[in-house]
């Protein structure tokens, strides 16, 4: 089976984990701090503003807490987002308000976001679909002008940037995902960024039980009763550890090569599917934008999309849709800023093709050939 997602792990990652085992310190320790500093350097931000956590989902929940979201607050987000975003908002008692997306880029424009704003809007939660930066700079300007907080769900955008500025650093808070399906993987894990230094310090406390001093060993150097607790607000345990951080450090060093290979595969799909009747490939990145090439998506006739996906699966090519629209999920209440025609169109016509750095040239050609044949067959045309 040619999979949609697949990590690239090898001897370097094994060696890094072996070093952690040999140190006999597996928890949140020196390798975690090193990974945070390395990732902060990758972003171009101070290391104290970055926190390694156990998942991007934990980062979403932590972000809603840091912003004090609750009943009576509205949060605008694109309907084509991961379910974790809707859950994080809904769990606070705040109301998710879904905005539309451009059916080609699958990102909202600033105008889409603005149409969904309400008098009760306290935050905007913006996803960078498939690693495409989207209209993030304009959305950030809109939020700043309106006094609205911006959360960037940069789970898919670990290497994405606009005019040299990394996605995730435009807003007040951001999180990245390093789960086993992402470009940079740690098995499970994520990173949280807070622009404000005080918010970053509070995030670190809340991520470890609300404790002012996370390590009793460190406290022993400054207190004669280091085992006593200093808890000023309730927290939970969502920190990362040195085992996964060690993997992350290696993966971060390898990231440029991963992204370049994914860019090559996306370019190959563009070339192999050019002119194919009934298949629309992704739009090119705008000038000044760089992507992470996490998704490669095509648009097909809605009448045949599901049949094509089934045909490809039968032929050993796994495809999928990310993400089913959240405004159709009853649990979220269905609040929108009006009709969402772009989202509805995209959810009915979009299909993600396999894209990961483990694909070879034969795999890419097989996917493209099988897609062309399946679309031709289901459209009633003879395959080319």
Automatic annotation (TrEMBL):
It is an enzyme of class 2 (transferase). Gene3D superfamilies: Aspartate Aminotransferase, domain 1, Type I PLP-dependent aspartate aminotransferase-like (Major domain). Keywords: Aminotransferase, Pyridoxal phosphate, Transferase. SUPFAM superfamilies: PLP-dependent transferases (SSF53383). GO terms for molecular function: transaminase activity. Its EC number is 2.6.1.-. The keyword Transferase applies. Its cofactor is pyridoxal 5'-phosphate. The keyword Transferase applies. CDD domains: AHBA_syn. Signal peptide: none annotated. Belongs to the DegT/DnrJ/EryC1 family. L-glutamine:2-deoxy-scyllo-inosose/scyllo-inosose aminotransferase subfamily. This is DegT/DnrJ/EryC1/StrS family aminotransferase. It comes from Streptomyces hesseae.
């Amino acid at each position: 089976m040619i999979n949609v997602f697949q990590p690239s792990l090898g001897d370097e990652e094994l060696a890094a984990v072996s070093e952690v085992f040999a140190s006999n310190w597996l928890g949140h320790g020196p390798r975690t701090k090193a990974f945070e500093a390395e990732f902060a350097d990758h972003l171009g931000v101070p290391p104290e503003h970055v926190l390694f956590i156990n998942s991007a989902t934990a980062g979403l929940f932590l972000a809603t807490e840091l912003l004090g979201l609750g009943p009576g607050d509205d949060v605008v987000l694109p309907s084509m987002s991961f379910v974790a975003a809707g859950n994080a908002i809904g769990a606070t008692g705040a109301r998710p308000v879904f905005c539309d997306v451009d059916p080609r880029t699958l990102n909202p424009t600033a105008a889409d976001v603005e149409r969904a704003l309400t008098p009760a809007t306290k935050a905007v939660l913006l996803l960078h679909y498939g690693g495409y930066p989207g209209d993030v700079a304009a959305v950030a300007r809109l939020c700043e002008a309106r006094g609205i907080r911006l959360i960037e769900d940069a789970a898919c955008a670990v290497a994405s940037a606009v005019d040299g500025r990394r996605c995730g650093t435009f807003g007040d808070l951001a999180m990245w995902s390093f789960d086993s399906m992402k470009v940079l993987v740690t098995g499970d894990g994520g990173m949280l960024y807070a622009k404000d230094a005080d918010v970053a310090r509070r995030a670190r406390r809340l991520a470890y039980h609300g404790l002012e001093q996370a390590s009793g060993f460190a406290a022993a150097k400054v207190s004669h009763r280091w085992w006593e607790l200093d808890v000023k607000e309730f927290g939970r345990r969502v920190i990362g550890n040195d085992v996964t951080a060690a993997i992350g450090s290696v993966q971060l060093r390898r990231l440029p090569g991963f992204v370049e290979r994914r860019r090559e595969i996306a370019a190959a799909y563009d070339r192999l599917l050019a002119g194919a009747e009934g298949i629309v490939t992704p739009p090119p990145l705008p000038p000044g934008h760089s992507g992470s090439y996490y998704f490669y998506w095509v648009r097909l006739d809605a009448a045949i999309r599901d049949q094509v996906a089934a045909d490809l699966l039968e032929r050993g090519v796994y495809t999928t849709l990310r993400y089913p629209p959240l405004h159709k999920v009853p649990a979220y209440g269905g609040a929108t800023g009006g009709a969402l025609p772009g989202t509805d169109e995209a959810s009915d016509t979009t299909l993600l093709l396999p894209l990961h750095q483990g694909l070879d040239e034969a795999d890419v050609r097989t996917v493209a050939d099988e897609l062309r044949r399946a679309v031709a067959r289901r459209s009633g045309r003879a395959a080319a």
